[in-house]
Amino acid sequence: MSSFRAIRIDKTDSGSSAAYAEFDDADLMDGDVTVRVTHSTVNYKDGLAITGKSPVVRRFPMIPGIDFAGVVETSQHRDFKPGDAVVLTGWGVGETHLGGYAQRARVKGDWLVPLPAGLSLAQTMAIGTAGLTAALAVMALERHGLKPADGPAVVTGAAGGVGSVGVVLLAKAGWHVVASTGRPGEATYLKGLGAAEIIERRDLSAPGRPLGKERWAAGIDSVGSHTLANLLSQTRYHGAISACGLAQGFDLPTTVMPFILRGVALLGIDSVHCPRQKRRDAWARLARDMDAGSLAGMTTTIGFDQVIATAHDILDGKVRGRVVVEIA
Predict the structure, then answer these.
(1) CA 58 to chain centre
(2) Up-side HSE of residue 36: CA atoms within 13 Å toward CB?
């Protein structure tokens, strides 16, 4: 047995608290693969978990961190052996199962994906859950039959993690990308990722009309609430929006009009329990379409000691793009 460093969330009378702590191998949960964690990342959900602003954590004490990358130390799973490089996103890790903000993790091998060819461990966390979600959203739009010739594609929360990767993937596929952001100063950054047009968040975030002027054929929304309602009301005939977040809220104050008058589709994106093959397909797409320059341009790297402070920053809208955490 050996000890390792981790972030620990404990339940308190006022909610929860997060601090750095020492754990022991005996504290790890059931699983058939033990991984030496080298990298993780800070997603919006991680910010909610660490700050306690939303009941993301459903078991205490908890090690947060909904994704990680690392090297297998021990394995009783048929697909993995010591020394294999692996990636994990979702499956309740960091919520109900001890997560990635630790030097060691024990999980089910069925939750792991082999390191995608062409990507480093650090690059997979530069993509992370947010990037995987964006890829699933793009692929859902394509399965719906939409293509760049149908019209523009809108991305909300474009300067965030899901949004940044979504802009890159859509632009790479040939779409005219409309990037919505509440940070006008990020226009140069977004255009560098491939956005053709920038619109202000306030244009979509207030209560709108049940049916608006048709503006886009497709979209990726990580915001929810009035923003998603406005996206739907302004989607072209037989267009679709992939919904994958709730930064503005989990409500959806819309009507049936976009659906029954224009045949608009709302595509729900779940990256937590996404089947293994769909995950592998999404990672292959990311390895192919996320060029190293774009990925580096949207990524900030921090040390393990900076995670808690960065979790607060991401909820305050101070984080652009993606954050890689060097755990080792």
Answers:
(1) 20
(2) 11
d(CA 3, CA 15): 27
Q: Could you give the C-alpha distances from 21 to 4, 6, 40, 45, 61, in angstroms and in order?
A: 9, 6, 17, 21, 11
Distances (CA, A) of 228 to 255, 266, 307: 12, 10, 30
How many other C-beta atoms are found inside a 10 Å radius of the C-beta of residue 5? 16
User: What span, in angstroms and rounded, lies between the C-alpha atoms of 51 and 35?
Assistant: 26
Measured between its terminal Cα atoms, the distance across the chain in Å is: 19
Pairing mode of beta strands 216-221, 235-243 = parallel
Q: How confident is the model at residue 15 (pLDDT cuts 50, 70, 90)?
A: confident
Q: pTM for the complete prediction?
A: 0.93
Q: Write out the E strands in 112-205.
A: 112-114, 153-155, 177-181, 197-200
Classify residue 250 by burial, with Cβ atoms within 10 Å: 0-12, 13-18, 19+: exposed
Residue 1: is its pLDDT beyond 70? no
Task: List, for residues 49-60, the tens digit of each pLDDT value.
Answer: 999 998 899 999
121-143 vs 161-172: helix crossing angle, rounded to 10: 60
Helix (H) / strand (E) element for 55: namely none
- 178-235: per-residue pLDDT in tens? 999 999 899 999 999 999 999 999 999 999 999 999 999 999 999 999 999 999 999 9
From CA 281, how far away is CA 76, in angstroms rounded? 25
Domains of the chain: 3-115+298-326 (3.90.180.10), 128-268 (3.40.50.720)
